[in-house]
């Protein structure tokens, strides 16, 4: 008898309690503020980059429309002098003194040098402080780069995310996983909270949530047209199912509902090149070490494995693998495919191609 063909399936982790490890890294080399073994809270600073210089050459003679030899007499600041943001650094009279052509500093900083037609500005960047985000224990320190934090808690991975990092108390905004979030649901009380929505969110609600300084949003589906708005608003948003109006999966909605009122992290990098899966994390213990929580096991496509349908007519259905046929099946369309027999949570049995399945749990 031929063996069944079982491909490697995508996985979405929805775990009540697990031990995870997450890297927290600076974008450039800086200073690590904690040591291995330290316990950290979500808002604790673990590393930072101090105020750094940003050297910028400016073609000042061209801006002022003057000769290189005449440039020095129009300078209001000399090399070595500090200046404030938007301060006038050079001014040249025009139209017999009735008008002036000026150059303003783009940021605060210092005039580094004057060379010919060019002015060199040493601009100051704001210091960057990297927070732990995950409440747990520092298990590794990477000199001048960052740390690895081990934490124990509930984990929910999403299909898409953007807006960055958010931290706050989880608040349930809608009562059912198929309800839509609208601007009427949002008021000043959402400030600093992570909002649990249902199947979708409209543009007005997104703008209102950002205006009221919500810490984050977890929603089942999102209109594709709103992807860029989420990044623009810098509202950390985790989409659990995908694009369009998609009711949140019952396992995800139920798990999050069980933690309403607890501190929650939304980690949804806007960077499309990030290899990290967007996620929500709810810490259970103050330290990463726990005999009750094990590292995340690898999910395997086998009989009794929990799966979610991610394509086809049964999109969004949750079930268990009841049987893995040893021969491919021919669908109504005439296409022959490999797949699995599922029993859904509604008690229905159906064959689904592997291409339309992912492991969940």
Question: What are the key terms here?
Answer:
6-stranded mixed sheet, mainly beta, elongated, 43% strand, single chain, Glucose Oxidase, domain 1, OB fold (Dihydrolipoamide Acetyltransferase, E2P), 11-stranded mixed sheet
Give the DSSP E fraction (strand runs of 2 or more residues).
Answer: 35-45%
Overall number of strands: 30
Query: Cα distance, first to last residue?
Result: 31 Å
CATH topology of the domain at 159-276: Glucose Oxidase, domain 1
Would you state the CATH class of the domain at 159-276? Alpha Beta
Give the count of helical stretches: 4
Low-confidence stretches: 286-291
Broad structural category: mainly beta
**Gross CATH architecture of the domain at 159-276:** 3-Layer(bba) Sandwich
Q: For the report, how would you describe the main beta sheet?
A: 11 strands, mixed
Describe the structure.
With 361 residues, the chain is mainly beta. Among the domains are: 53-124, OB fold (Dihydrolipoamide Acetyltransferase, E2P) (Beta Barrel), CATH 2.40.50; 159-276, Glucose Oxidase, domain 1 (3-Layer(bba) Sandwich), CATH 3.50.30; 306-360. It has helices at 60-64, 203-211, 227-233, 250-257, and strands at 11-12, 14-25, 31-32, 39-40, 45-49, 53-58, 82-83, 88-94, 99-104, 109-115, 118-124, 128-131, 136-142, 146-157, 160-162, 164-172, 180-181, 193-196, 200-201, 216-222, 237-243, 263-268, 279-283, 306-309, 318-323, 329-330, 336-337, 339-344, 349-353, 357-360. The strands form 7 sheets. Strands 2, 4, 13, 14, 15, 16, 18, 20, 21, 22 and 23 form an 11-stranded mixed beta sheet that branches. Strands 1-30-24-25-28-29 form a 6-stranded mixed beta sheet, with no helix packed on it. The protein has a 4-stranded antiparallel beta sheet with strand order 6-11-10-7, with no helix packed on it. A hairpin with a 4-residue loop joins β28 and β29 (349-353).
